[in-house]
Amino acid sequence: MPFVFRFSGLVLSCLLLVVVCHTPAPADGARLSELSVTPSEGVLVFQATVAGAFNEKMEAAIKSGVPVTFTFLIRAARVRRMWFDRDVAEYRVSHTITYDNLKEEFTVHRSWEGEKTLVTKSLDQARNAMVRIEGLPLCSLDDLERDTVYRVSAKAELDKLTLPLYLHYVLFFVSFWDVETDWHHVDFTY
Amino acid sequence: MSGLDEEERRRRKREGILAIVLLVTVAVLTYLESRIIQFGADIPVSNTVLMFIFININLLLLILLIFLVFRNLVKLFYDRKQNVMGARLRTRLVVAFISLTLVPAIVLFFFSMSFITTSIKFWFNVPVDHALENSLAVGKNMYAHIEDSNRFFLKRAAYQITTNNLLRPYRTEDLSRYIQIVQREFHLNTVEVYSPDGERITYAVSPEIEAFPFGTVSVNDLKKTGMEKDTVFSISRNLPAGELVSSICSIPFGQPREKAEAFLVISILLPPDLSESLTAISRGIEEYQQIKLLKEPIQSTYYIVLSIVALLVVFCAVWFGFYIAKSLTNPIMELAKGLERVSAGDLAYTIERLADDEIGMLVSSFNKMTGDLRAGRQQIEAATQALERQKDALEESRLYMEIVLNNISTGVISIDAGGTITTINKSARKMLSLSHANVLNRYYANVLTDRYLKLANEMIATIRDGGQDMVELPLRLTISGTPRSFIIYLNALRHDKTGQYMGIVMVIDDLTELEKAQRMAAWREVARRIAHEVKNPLTPISLSAQRLKRKFGPDADDPVFEECIRTILDYVDIIRNLVNEFAAFAKFPSAKLAPCDLVQIIRETADLYSEEDSPVTFTIDAPTDLPRLNLDRQQIKQALINLIENAITAMEGAGRITITVCHDPAAMKVVLTFADTGRGLSEAAKNNLFEPYFSTKKSGMGLGLAIVSSIIADHNGTISAHDNEPRGARFIIELPA
Fold it and tell me: How far, rounded to the nearest angstrom, does the alpha carbon of residue A96 sit from its chain's CA centroid?
């Protein structure tokens, strides 16, 4: 009888283990690079690039008309040794790419650029626009204190695609990509 | 019954533990799923929670089902190995259910998979692909054609505008006129001219869209370039009248946008239905391609769902098999257990009836059977106790009867209806010198021989068949060489009610001593009377003879006279002696017992005959510690004298007389053996030796041994005569000590 219980417990543990071990795969090498902040014309300007974000499946999905959105989370905070960091600025910006198969052109809209969109027939051009943030004003330099260490953290993640025919409810475990970078930090002293 | 309560408690405990485990698992799974699955911020929270709940329930149910089924399977396998009762039946039922379910489920599964694969392939087949691609190509070609056409017109118009300097501020009217001509001549829907900063300078529209405001082209669009720095850039604007496909170029044609002097925009209106069709084609292809991307995941999902459903069906079948098997085997096991308990003697065991079917009827029948058995056993126990008591009483009665029979002086022998000797008491065995083993439970004809058997058969026939219930039979037998006289009473045993012959009981009385005593008394009386009658005339005869002798003796010269007188006197003396002996026998005085030393008496008596050079030698062998016996000294001496006299006579005056005395303390008797080396005793002599007037001598009255027998009898002893070895006679006297 104890053998029965032991075996049953083992089976149950295996099943749970299978579930437990299903953790999100690493983001296939997606990472933030060229992360920098630069004071320019009275504002702190942020710049970053997501490397290794695009793969073949993603490109195929884009060409099939699936809109893809990258979301960038950017946070600037004042570093304090014995206490929590004080947030100075926090942004959430998104880059969306869509493809018109009739006109064979990509449209990239970057939320921080307002109504401006890039329409191009070049995938490379569209991809570059998607993965880069340049010239994003984080905060005014007046909001910063001199001789103070600040940290700018950024992270990029790809929003889950919305599949047609509400298949995302059924195929919730289907993920073409799990692009989510780690938090990257850059510290500077103003 | 208490086993079931225990089982119930254990089951509830298990269920409680299972519920707690499930709750914990739900919490853990929910947390894990929240990490794995992100539905996105645009889906309402309630739907998310609902999805979590559904997923969790499905997952948990599946895990639970798999767990329970495997657990039961393992338990079944384990029970089978241990030969637990009911395991084989359960295995058979479960295997049957699995087989019944598995085969169609597998067939259905593979058929469904094949069907799904084929269907999906059919949906995404090449003709569909080609058709959609071709439709898209038509749309693309149409837009390309429009763009090419516009390019042609843009080039010409831009050239004309540049060549004719129509962009000069003072030539605006000419410009307007020109573009109207261009619009009419080339059948264009709109022709617009924009300044470098995006302000529309002039435009011309066709009557179709005149009524619909179509706005202006934005500066951004004006300044966009196409692929590979194409000089013409096209945009679309949707109007109620249709889709306006506009192509933009810089003036002069081919000039980079930042250096353009102006922008020229030519538009063609696509009818709404055509526009919609093109849009639909585009959207359709987009959706098709998206679904095509998901072809494999959808296929996998279908396979997974199908597999899960098939597994669910199989597991449910297994579970159902277990349930049915359990519902069948549990009562059967209870019955088997009950039968074991009943055969071990526990008739108080009952089984709870849980079902109302044939198994329940079987259980009820079992309970009734055990109840009846219990009642029967109680009755049997009561009857057994009563029988035991009766048996004890009978045994007691039998023992009492046995003791009584073994202690009476009368011999009792019983023979059953078949002739088997069933009882013989101690007295009968002693009387007839028989042993228990030789006689008991043997057929009487195997025990008796010759004339005795013939006599017995006659007696038994008389009683059994003759209707006589009692026969009296005097019998003389020689027992161990000693003649005995018996009186035998044969009584028929008949059943009280039916009168059926059941056997015979023989009552035997030994009359030997009684007859001896009677004969002795009779002889004594005869001797007394004869002595008296004969003695009386002797005195006158003797006196007369003496008188004659005195009177005529001196005068008679004839010697005959003297001789006759002498003869008369001699024979009168002889007769007187004989009569005196008779008288002595007749009125023998009773013994006066006093403690005496028997050995001393023997020696004194032997000394009377132990003269020097006597031809008769005496050997006396006696213990030195012989206890003193209650004897009449004189009578014992007389008895010994009589024996010695007889021995001397038998030895013809010479021989050896051996007297042996031994004490038997256990039997409380002293045995005196008197043996001579005479001529011995014949069988006839042995029978009548101690009778009065029996003598083997030529002379003598034959009263010597009769007197010895009488003396020994007065001392409560016995005397018997036997042959001596190598020769002679041996007398054994037993006296109480």
Answer: 12
